[in-house]
Structures are given as C-alpha cells and as structure tokens.
Amino acid sequence: MLYPTPIAKLIDSFTKLPGIGIKTATRLAFYTIGMSDEEVNEFAKNLLAAKRELTYCSVCGNLTDEDPCSICTDQTRDRSVILVVEDSKDVSAMEKIQEYHGLYHVLHGLISPMNGVGPDDINLKSLITRLMDSEVNEVIIATNATADGEATSMYISRVLKPAGIKVTRLARGLAVGSDIEYADEVTLLRAIENRTEL
Ligand SMILES: [Zn+2]
After folding, report:
1. Is there a domain that residue 131 lies in?
2. Are strands 166-169 and 196-197 parallel, antiparallel or unpaired?
3. Where is the Toprim domain (predicted)?
C-alpha cells in the first residue's frame, strides 16, 4: 500500500494486536493521527508506562506494579487456600465477584501435550515451592474446561495429592471450552461453591 512510511509503520504496529486485521489497523492508524498532540502523547505514555511499571508477582505470578502483589501481601486474605488460574485476566474475573478471599497462583499457560507444552514450561514449579512450609490446605484448580485445562488440572492433582493437600476443581457450571474470563458472575460463583474434590 502506498502510504507515507510513518503511517505504514503505524498500521503495521496495529496489525500486531490480536484480532486486528489490516482494515481495522488502517482505520485505527488514521484515527490516531487525527487525534490531538495531547491525546497521542497520553496514549503513548500509557503504553510505555504499562510496559515499564508492570511486572509479575514473584510469589503468585499475577501481573502487578508492586512485588509481591497487593493480594499476596493482604493479611486479611485467607492464606489456607490457593486458586490456580491460567492467566492474570482470570484473577480479575474472580476478584470482580468479591466472593473468593484466598490467594492465587497464575500459571501463564496450560500444559498442552498436543502442543508440546510441559509442566516446566508454565509457572508451576513455583506453586510447589510455595506449598512447602505454607499454611495452605486446599488448592482449587480453576483452569478452563478445555483439553489443556483438564490436562493441567490432572497433572497438578497428581503432584499435590500425595503431599496431603486437598485438591479441588471448579464445578462444571462452566460450559466445556468456555473461558473463566468471560463467565458471568453467577456462573463463576456457583462453580466455586460447588467445586469437587479431585
Ligand atoms: Zn502475588
């Protein structure tokens, strides 16, 4: 396409975002250059600040701007239970319903035998380390109801159960293949309440 280089580059950047095709990227690029200098500055600043200031909690793996994160350091939370999720978006989904008051562990992925992703490729070792010398007596696995979610759940329960830790799984209120991130609050709440022991 015969656009001046700066806009061609901007379009190219937008196409790198998930779900953005060339048409939408072009529309966004033209919209962006129509914005005021102040708005563009603010946009660019937020982008850089988010990247620079955010890190992953060294305890639970959640996205945070302070390490350990505010959930891990919150002494009012129930330290006897850890809810294991695939990514930080799932933590937000859970926190939104305000019914879960325990701790989290973010895996940053799922075990996927089909794609050659093993236990060492996700943030799982640190969960096991965390459980040694801790007051945790229940681990709730809240991975999505997909094949990879199931494989991950099975692996974790197989590793933890011999250590005497109660391992539970969110109830099947969630449809197979559905995302915790997009589940409505009632469904999510019911899934926690009706969790089953593995
Ligand atoms: Zn944390």
Report:
1. yes
2. antiparallel
3. 80-175
| Ligand 1: centre distance to CA 58 (Å) | 7
For residue 178, the CA-to-ligand 1 centroid distance in Å is 25
Ligand 1 centroid vs 171 CA: distance in angstroms? 25
Q: How far is the CA of 125 from the centre of ligand 1 (A)?
A: 15
Give the distance (Å) from ligand 1 centre to CA of residue 37.
37
Residue 130 inside a domain? The answer is: yes
Distance 146 CA to ligand 1 centre (A): 25
Distance 154 CA to ligand 1 centre (A): 24
- Do residue 165 and residue 80 come from a single domain? yes
Phi and psi, residue 111, nearest 5°: -65, 130
Measured in Å, residue 117 CA sits from the centre of ligand 1 at: 24
98 and 130 inside one domain? yes
Domain of residue 161, residue span:
75-169
pLDDT in tens, the chain (198 residues): 589 999 999 999 999 999 999 999 999 999 999 999 999 999 999 999 999 999 999 999 999 999 999 999 999 999 999 999 999 999 998 998 888 999 999 999 999 989 999 999 999 999 998 998 788 999 999 998 888 999 999 999 999 988 889 999 987 655 544 576 767 777 777 778 778 888
In a domain, 107, yes or no: yes
15 close to 22: Cβ distance less than 8 angstroms: yes
Q: What is the 11 CA–ligand 1 centroid distance (Å)? A: 36
My answer on whether 34 and 94 are in the same domain is no
Q: Any residues with CB less than 8 A from the CB of 83 and at least 6 apart, and which?
A: 94, 100, 102, 103, 104, 105, 139, 140, 142
* pTM higher than the cut 0.85: no
